[in-house]
Structures are given as C-alpha cells and as structure tokens.
Amino acid sequence: MSAEIICVGTELLLGEILNSNAQFLAQQLAQLGIPHYFQTVVGDNLDRIAQVIKIAQERGSRILLFTGGLGPTPDDLTTEAIASYFQTPLIEDAASLDDITAKFAQRGRVMSSNNRKQALIPQGAKVLPNPVGTAPGVIWQPKPDLLIMTFPGVPREMQRMWHDTAVPYLHSQGWGQQTIHSQTLRFWGIGESSLAVKVQSFFELTQPTVAPYAGKGEVRLRLSAKAASAEEAMEVITPVADQIRAIAGPDYFGCDQDTLAAVVGRALQRRGDTLAVAESCTGGMLGAMLTEVPGSSSYFWGGVIAYANTIKTQVLGVSETDLAQWGAVSAIVAEQMAQGVQRLYGTTWGLSITGVAGPGGATAEKPIGLVYIALAWAQGTMNWECRFGSQHDRELIRHLSACTALDYLRRQLAALE
Amino acid sequence: MSAEIICVGTELLLGEILNSNAQFLAQQLAQLGIPHYFQTVVGDNLDRIAQVIKIAQERGSRILLFTGGLGPTPDDLTTEAIASYFQTPLIEDAASLDDITAKFAQRGRVMSSNNRKQALIPQGAKVLPNPVGTAPGVIWQPKPDLLIMTFPGVPREMQRMWHDTAVPYLHSQGWGQQTIHSQTLRFWGIGESSLAVKVQSFFELTQPTVAPYAGKGEVRLRLSAKAASAEEAMEVITPVADQIRAIAGPDYFGCDQDTLAAVVGRALQRRGDTLAVAESCTGGMLGAMLTEVPGSSSYFWGGVIAYANTIKTQVLGVSETDLAQWGAVSAIVAEQMAQGVQRLYGTTWGLSITGVAGPGGATAEKPIGLVYIALAWAQGTMNWECRFGSQHDRELIRHLSACTALDYLRRQLAALE
C-alpha cells in the first residue's frame, strides 16, 4: 500500500520551475510513515495524464497525490483527466462555486466564466477546500482500493490544504499511525565542515539520525526519530539535541522555525529593549527580516534606509569629514550610522550596515563583499568588519550582511543575560 | 522521438533534496528542442528501476537520461539495473579505473574496493567521462531505437558532463538541431483568469505557444517558439507579444527578468527623478526590492521604516491629531508619510505604505489585508486603498503591498511619459 506523487504541468517539463511540491509531499509522506516509491511529472495533456494514472495503479500505488492543473485556464486539465479516466461525469459543486464567487467579490475582482470550471468535481468526490486560493482540490475514491487527492500547483495553497484537510483525512483512514518526527537545530557563524568535525560522532546514530544541511550562510542539523507520536520521538531527540547544543556553544541560535530575527526579538522583549536600524547596502532587508516576525512592533521601532550619502549625513548625522576621509563603507561611518539612528529614534539599540554588495562600486581596497556592521547602545559602540567574498552575488551578500548583523546583536544580547 | 528524465535516489523519495537535476535537464532538452513528456523519480531498487525502464520504452521514450545511483556504495544500483534489464554483462573499463585511481591518489585519499565498482559499464557502452568527480556515466544504445545516458546525482558533476560530452554527442546523432526559445510577459494588477479571458484566442496558437502562470499577485504569459535559433524564434514571438501587450495595456509591466522595481528604476532614471520610501507594515521590504536592482543608488536615496507610531510623527511629521483620529492605517496617514519622507529626503517622489499585515492588529473596520499606499510629488499627493484579503498570511500581504506600491508608481510614471 504505497503512495505516488504525480505533478502535472508543462512548466515542469520545460524546466521553468523547480518541483518543490514533490519534495514537500515526499517529506510529508515520510513523516507519516506512508511508503512512496515513485514520482511522476507529466505535462498538461489529457491522454498522458490518463496513461500515468494507469501505470500508477498497475504498479500498486494506492494513494495518488496530484499537484497542478487545477487553475481556470484551458490547459488546466487534471480534474477532467481523472474524471474521464474513470468515466465519471463532472458536476458543479455549489459550495465551491459560492466560495470562489465570494473570494472574487472580496478582492473586488471580476469573476470570469473560466473560474466556474474550478468548481467542477467528479461525481462522488469530496471537495478538498482551498482556504487561500480559488482552486479547490478533491478527495476521491473512484474504486475501493484507490484514493486520489488533488492540489493546486501553488505551493502555499497546496501546503495549507495538505495540513488542514489531507493529513486529518489520511489519519481518519488509518494511514500515518507511525511518524517520523524531526527537530532542526540552526547555527550561524560556523561553516558546515567545521560543525561536522565537532559533531561527527553523532552522524553514526540511527535513532535519532543526524544529518547536516547548509545554505546561504546558515548550517542546520536535522535530528529525526521514528515513533508512535511526536512526543515519543522528542524523547529520543531531546537528549541528543542537548549534547549537540553544548558542543556547538554560541553558534547555535535556535531550532525549527526560529529565525535570527525572532531570536533577537525574544531577547529584546525579555529585556524591555527597543531597536532601530540604519541600512545602506541592504536597503531595507534587515528591517524586512525583523518585521517578518509577528508582534515585532513591541521592540522594533523602525529604521533609516540611507542609500544615498547625503541621507547618511543629513538624516543620520554622519560626519561629512569622516565620510569623505574614510568612505561610506568604513567602520567609522557604520558606527555613526548606528549612533545616528539610535539617537533619532530614541531606542535602546541602533544597528547599522554599510558595505559593497556589487556588482559595481568595488575598488582594490574595498572589494565586493566588504561590509561593516555596527551596534550602538548606552554603553558605547561596537563594529565588525566582514568579508563575504567577492565571488558571491549581490543578493547573497545582502542576505549574509543582514543575517550577520542580527547575529552580532543576538550574541551581544546573550552576553548580557 | 522523445526523451525521458529518470532520477534515481531514495533521498528524493524522502524529500531530503530538491530535484534540481530534473529542472536542469528539462531546461536543456527544451533548449535543444528535444521533446520530453515525462519525468520519473524512483528509489535505489533494482526491480523498480527495471520497471521504470520498461514503462519509459513502452510509452515511446527514445532517450533515457538517468541521474543518480552511480556512487560507490551498495545502494548505488543504476548501472547494474540497466545492464541487468537488457541482460548485458558489466565489464570493467580500464581507462575509467585508471582515472578513478588517479583521482584518489591526487586527493591523498585511500581508494576502497567499493570504488572499483564505479569503473563497471555494460558491454558495448561508451564511457561518459566525469572530469570533476569519480563516478563516470555511460552512453549506451542497448537496442537500435534507444539511447541511454547516465549521470551522477551531484549537480555540478552532472552539468559538466552534460555540457562537455552529452550535448556534443546528441548533436552528432542529429538531435537538437532545433531550439525552443521563450519570452515571458509579466503583468501586475490583473488576475490570471481576467487576463486569460482577454487573450484567450492566443492560447490556440501553436507557433508560438502561449501559456499563463500566476503566483504571488503576478501573472505571466510564456510565449515559446521552436526554431533553428533564438533569433528566428523571436521573429515568431515578437509580433504576438506586441499584440498581447496592446490588448493588456498598462497591466503589462515587463518581460523576462524585468521586475517591477527595475521597471520603476528605469523610468525614474529616464526622467532624472529620485525616490524615497516610508514603510510601516512592509518594514523595509519595499526598500529591499528597490535596492535589489544593481545601480539603484542613482535614483533611490533611501527611506524611513516607521514601524512605531512615534516614528511616524517625530521623524516623518505625521500629525498626531490625524493619527489619533484616523489611526495609523488610513489614507491620510499614508499621504503624510509619503509627504514626510519626500520632504526629509529631498527627492522627487515619496512613496509610502501603511497597513494591517496580520496576524494581529486587525479590527472589524480594519481587517487583515487592508493597506493604504500613497505617493507624494511636486504636483500633490495620491492615495490608494487596497484590500488584499484576510485569508492571506503576513508575508504574502507584505509582498503584495510592496509590489502594488511599485506598480502604482510605475503607472504614474508611465502616465507622465
């Protein structure tokens, strides 16, 4: 009794998008302990979708998870293909039509006749509601030993529908009684190989397994255990996680959904402190990360994007002489930016970034990837020089700059606790 | 005569990695004009790999591109599975063994007996050399109308082997003489279905084909044509793109890599205008989008992240009375924020955003998704009320807010041209 993931979309065959839906569903099936041996990608084509359903059944797949092809346009054919394969008529689901109509009304947009099509489901199927978009999916057993679920291709919608409806339904049918539960430990300020050397012995474990991942400056260790419940799995995971945290020290910053911004936010909140930022090369990215955290308004008051040098001097009060002498990308300008925003906004902390993100603006002395970060507070000012490497692109350098600024503030706040 | 991509690896079935190899090969096949209707993912299992080969042949795939399963460990089974399916013995390729031995010596590592296995290829196959790793692939015609190529799963190695050897080989066999070239038209401010209704007749075309995509508020139409070169393809695409642009009017904002921020930037640059932003709920995201564009410092001077109300009044000069009477999420506060930042920064334009991104902060009158955008310049001030829908999450509402603000400025700049 295994599941098969079937992703429908010519854009996948043209390589226009990465098939992140297959990865998401694969992870979810693994967590539910539902075996899964094949994934198929097929274009928006009635005959080929039918072929794929036939093959999936013949090779013993009993749960078919479809993504894509539920949209309003004529090349969205998944529902039609499935119904036609099982020679079942499509009927208009009144509740879905009402829901689609209401969503269009709410957004003040005109519903087209195409959208009516999205309310069609095979006779006998249940609607798999889409709380965030207009395309509902279906849950359908066209024959006793076959379960079909369809999801739109938009990852956000698909994931929400999976969690809200599909997983509870699978549980109710007796699937997923064993679970693989994971906890991810997150690190900043250490490379993957350096962390791997420190925690090497843990990679031999089987319960929990420990696996490293790295990307965009962050290193993660995923600890996974198989058990009857998440709680039981955590009993196996927690002692190992504690040992790893003790070995890693301050490079560990949080687990699972914790971001650097969220961790910094909690520390500020505990102290009753407030924060303002002054950004040059990141142009607002640091503020955007901080305000990604719901409730951040209680400690984050805002900031100044000082992209032009005149803004650095006129709004933040950076000295024109120092700017001329040392340049905008310098420790002294970073410090004056941090002091300036802290003073202007009246916050406990001022955090600033100025650097060369590229591709232009580099000199022999100030290469792409050179970034200064500074922190101002009642006790004084600190600054750090970072060299992120000129082989990196603009977006990565900006991302590393904003995260590293948060990380320095995190370490400073931790030192005060 | 079509190709099929077959990715082998249990890590794909567990969702541990994203299948970027499938996307890469799909793009490459599209560029070579080699049709490709199916992709399959299968685990490291002899029987299931054999099943997949059988199915691929039965459905008319004539080029099978395998990735993964060429490593030294016992669970790397791709070569063995293919040879066994065609009942062909594996033989040790002396040149490959020498190459593997040399690479181990070069890295100062001990070669294990497992690695010898990587030099085995089916009798009659050619080696597909791997210049960057130890696992070579094969090029094999086990029967007259079937071509098999195998690549390791490591993307860097696979891509190098594809470019260095596979593409020249395909060309030499008469494949890839035609190319599929695409242009993507991008739209903001219109829903997918409304645009589809307007341009419906184009969906019937076959040269170029026209296909819609939508995500995060943006709608795209991809025009693809098959031709001997990209230039010839563009001769077919351009007149259709022109017609679609004429029908869509101002909802069209750019093509291919054009972002709203880049389009706005070019328009500002043409006029010699400058811009500053004042952000509340987006917290810096609008600035981050604008500064994502290299060279944006010539027109974007920066902005004020006014997350706290005191910053709105003290730094931007929003009236305390109006703020108290109308609330921070109101048209009048948005206008005063835009005016304030335009005045403080001395720019041609001031663009502001204030809204309820959720999950907290909503009231009956001011639901999640209610956002005010305002624009201030010498001619006066304009504001817009947006209702993005309370079913959306914080990140999407913030993204829609920042993009919509750019879009309003884009339309205003276009009206002045």
Summarize the entry for a quick read.
The structure is a homodimer of 417-residue chains. The first copy, chain A, is of the alpha/beta class.
Report on this model:
- The structure is a homodimer of 417-residue chains.
- The first copy, chain A, is of the alpha/beta class.
- Chain A has 3 domains: 2-172, 3-Layer(aba) Sandwich (Molybdenum Cofactor Biosythetic Enzyme, Chain A), CATH 3.40.980; 179-255, 2-Layer Sandwich (Alpha-Beta Plaits); 260-416, Alpha-Beta Complex (Maf protein), CATH 3.90.950.
- Chain A contains 15 helices and 17 strands.
- The first copy, chain A, has a 6-stranded mixed β-sheet with strand order 2-1-3-8-7-6, sandwiched between helices. A 5-stranded mixed β-sheet of chain A has the order 14-13-15-16-17, with helices on both faces.
- In chain A, α11 links the parallel β13 (275-279) and β14 (300-306).
- In chain A, α3 (46-58) packs across α4 and α10 packs parallel to α15 (394-416).
- Chain A starts with a strand and ends with a helix.
- The model of chain A has no long low-confidence stretch (mean pLDDT 94).
- Chains A and B meet through α1, α2, β2, α3 and α6 of A and α2, β2, α3, α8 and β10 of B.
Q: How would you sum up the major sheet of chain A?
A: 6 strands, mixed
The poorly predicted ranges of chain A are: none
CATH superfamily of the largest domain in chain A: MoaB/Mog-like domain
Number of strands of chain A: 17
Q: In the CATH classification, which architecture of the largest domain in chain A applies?
A: 3-Layer(aba) Sandwich
Structural domain tally of chain A:
3
The spatial strand order of the largest sheet of chain A comes to 2-1-3-8-7-6
Largest interface: A-B, 94 and 95 residues
Annotation field: number of helices of chain A:
15
As a percent range, the share of helical residues of chain A equals 40-55%
- Mean pLDDT of chain A comes to 94
Regarding quaternary structure, how should these chains be classified? Answer: homodimer
> How would the global form of chain A be characterised?
globular
Report how far the terminal alpha carbons of chain A are from each other: 53 Å
Structural class by secondary-structure content of chain A: alpha/beta
- Report the C-alpha radius of gyration of chain A, rounded: 26 Å
Strand content of chain A: 25-35%
Could you name the CATH topology of the largest domain in chain A?
A: Molybdenum Cofactor Biosythetic Enzyme, Chain A
